[in-house]
Amino acid sequence: MNKTISKHLSTCSYCGVGCGIEVTKDAKGAIAVKGDEQYPVNKGMLCSKGMNLNYVVQNTDDRILYPQMRWSKSHPLERVDWDTALTRASAVFRSLIQQYGPDSVGMYVSGQCLTEEYYIANKLTKGFFGTNNIDTNSRLCMSSAVVGYKKTIGDDTVPICYDDIELADCFLITGANPAWCHPILFRRIEKHKELNPDVKIIVVDPRKTQTCSSADLHLQINPGTDTMLHHAIGRALIESGNIDLAFIENHLNGFEAYKEKVLSLTMESYAQACGLSVEDILSAASMIGDAKGFLSMWTMGLNQSAKGTDKNLSLIALNLITGHIGKPGAGPFSLTGQPNAMGGREVGGMANLLAAHRDLLNPEHRQEVADFWGVDQISPKPGYTATEMFEALDRGDMKAVWIVCTNPMVSLPDSNLVERALKKARFVIVQDISYKSDTVALADLVLPAAGWLEKEGTMTNSERRISYLPKVLNAPGEALPDLDIFLRFAQKMGYHGFDFKDTEAVFLEHVKLTEGTNIEISGLDYQTLKEKRSVQWPYTNGKQQERLFTDKRFYTPDGKANIFPAAATNELEKLTPDFPLVLTTGRIRDQWHTMTRTGKVNRLNTHIDKPFLEIHPSDAEVRNIKDGDVVEISSKRGTVRVHAQLTDKIKEGVVFLPMHWGKILQHDLARTNNLTDRLLDPISKEPDFKYSAVEVVRY
Ligand code: SF4
Fold first, then answer.
1. Less Cβ around it within 10 Å: N or C end of the chain?
2. Is 47 a pocket residue for ligand 1 (Cβ < 6 Å)?
3. Among the atoms of ligand 1, which is closest to the Cα of residue 14?
4. CA-wise closest residue to 107 among 405, 481, 452
5. ipTM of this model?
6. CB 49 near ligand 1, within 6 Å
7. Is residue 548 a part of any domain in this protein?
8. pLDDT value for 523
9. Does one domain contain both 157 and 74?
10. Ligand 1 and 46: CB distance under 6 A
């Protein structure tokens, strides 16, 4: 056995839980991983994905090892050196910007990028290309929650800390399956309930997921009716007097309009719309009303919706009318999907944001950032968001896109449009670690990137905890850290302000921009992060803030929180006789996103090894479908062909497909997003992956 020669502390690169990992490296360079017992998030625990990260790192068979370029669409990709690759990239971007204007180009980045990479990608695009066409796959994940927080508590900030889990006595887990998708947080909830059996867990989901195994109450709701349910619970809380009148009086705006809205329908009407019983809704309301610490937790089931903003507003209202915020064990807690979706937004990593949560539409904020970067101005025009960007490429309004660390050919809605858009684009750069990314096939320029442990930088998890990730290994072949690629490109473009001596210098520039904002981290540097292991923002005078709003002053102009009479109408894709079933999509336990990393770990493929369709036995029976049959699922946009899995854990009239498989890992017809719609929430611009009208037939 080889002796350990070095030990390093890092953070898991998969989900927003942000577990601490201890990495050991032996004399032959082989690494082993285990949960960091001292880390406050996971206290030594790791889920199946995290504990197999070493196999992902060590198996480099799929890695992109050198830049590749095609000289025209009809030429094959051929190996080139970095100088040729970046000279071409800069020449094309410069020429397109001159000929068609800055909005003809854009970047599509990822919640997997490190904060420093995100910062520089934003500086390049917004400061120097002169366009706000930079968006991220976090748009598919969190943007409805961002709008919910901004409208209610005044900023995009998670008010709770993870330690509130052990202090809560009622959990409302809605639109989320944390048992599979945020496993370590769910382990903490399970353990808390084991030790305190009176703790109540309410789960809201059209599917009976693994999370329901710990639930006191499962509300198997009709898809798309979440706002109705929230209003029904709000009504029941008001009618039973289980609201915090002092909080409402002193710290809340909008209660009367909200009250009028939720009282406008009867409990019976709400129950019928939601497909639930009045008793179950009242039972949920009474668990919440009796709680000393009420924690609402949600993720994609609410966010990924054409009504995502309303669903968020109506849920957060339940915490606000009961005063369950800013106190132990209480608050609205959106579970972040990706490991650094928070860090990305901290540096302004969306088409409508600026650094340190500044607002793109605010002229003063734009000027502050422009002055800081030494440029004349930031464009006042919001950029294309994720889905809009590919629509713009399809229309020809955008000519070039630089895709970093994400696989939109599989993950964006209406994949067939995305594929067509990438074929039509003049120039597509794909910067990735793996050939398993389907999008690589349509690139004009492929740039090999370094992966986890092969570069340093920082990430922020979903309790605002910033951690430092060290470089432990050299990247294979000629792969470079994303940051180095951006900085080399900026030099080729002749831009000033990109001459950083190291990665920390980029971090410190970001820190400077946070001064005076709600997310201030003044004084934070790599040495402090290494010593403290991690800190939660805001961090000033050497002190972090774990739980926010303990003084009940919110980040709004008058310091009060806001609630809204959110519309409960369900303006989603209509079911028709041709497409009478609702398709909802999601994740499985052992896979991550489009499987470019987890898909190459044998033991992670043993849990579920192929795509499948969950369908209720009665929906299957009328279609003459048996368990295991190959079925064809169709929507107005495309088709998918997979094996049927009959289960009464899914509500009648609803079918479920996992979102992971794409062309490369299966075949053309396993790509779930062939079916989904590009319908967006009008404010958050988050697409709706949870409600598509489909039909299923035996193939
Ligand atoms: Fe990684 Fe998330 Fe699993 Fe923790 S819960 S080990 S962060 S995938």
1. N
2. yes
3. 8
4. 405
5. 1.00
6. yes
7. no
8. 95
9. no
10. yes
User: Is there a single domain that holds both residue 420 and residue 313?
Assistant: no
Q: How far is CA 26 from CA 23, 445, 627, in A?
A: 10, 36, 48
User: Where a domain ends, among 312, 335, 358?
Assistant: 335
The number of C-alpha atoms within 13 Å of 394 and in the hemisphere containing its C-beta is 14
Residue 349 in any domain: the answer is: yes
- Judge if 258 and 156 occupy the same domain: yes
49 C-alpha vs ligand 1 centroid, how far in Å?
7
Cβ of 18 closer than 6 Å to ligand 1, yes or no, is: yes
Question: How much is the pLDDT for 668?
Answer: 66
**pLDDT for 566:** 97
In a domain, 46, yes or no: yes
Strands laid side by side in the 217-219 sheet = 217-219, 200-204, 170-174, 294-298, 331-334
Q: Which atom of ligand 1 is nearest to the CA of 183?
A: 5
Ligand 1 centroid–CA 18 distance in Å is: 6
All residue ranges of the chain with pLDDT < 50 are: none
The three-point CA angle 664-178-23 to 5° equals 70
Please tell me if the CB atom of residue 51 comes closer than 6 angstroms to any atom of ligand 1: no
Task: Write out the residue range of the structural domain in which residue 600 sits.
Answer: 581-698
In a domain, 511, yes or no: no
- Atom 3, ligand 1: residue with shortest CA distance: 47
Task: Give residue for tokens 């739980």.
Answer: 547
Measured in Å, residue 99 CA sits from the centre of ligand 1 at 45
Q: What's the pLDDT tens digit per position in 182-222?
A: 999 999 999 999 999 999 999 999 999 999 999 999 999 99
Nearest CA to ligand 1 atom 2: 15
Same domain for 186 and 112, yes or no, is no
Q: How many CB atoms lie within 10 A of CB 4?
A: 12
Residue 177 and residue 210 in contact, taking contact as beta carbons nearer than 8 Å: yes
Does pTM surpass 0.90? yes
Query: What total number of domains does the chain contain?
Result: 4
- Tokens 């305190």, residue located: 196
Q: What is the pLDDT of residues 639-670, one digit of tens each?
A: 999 999 999 999 999 999 999 998 877 776 88
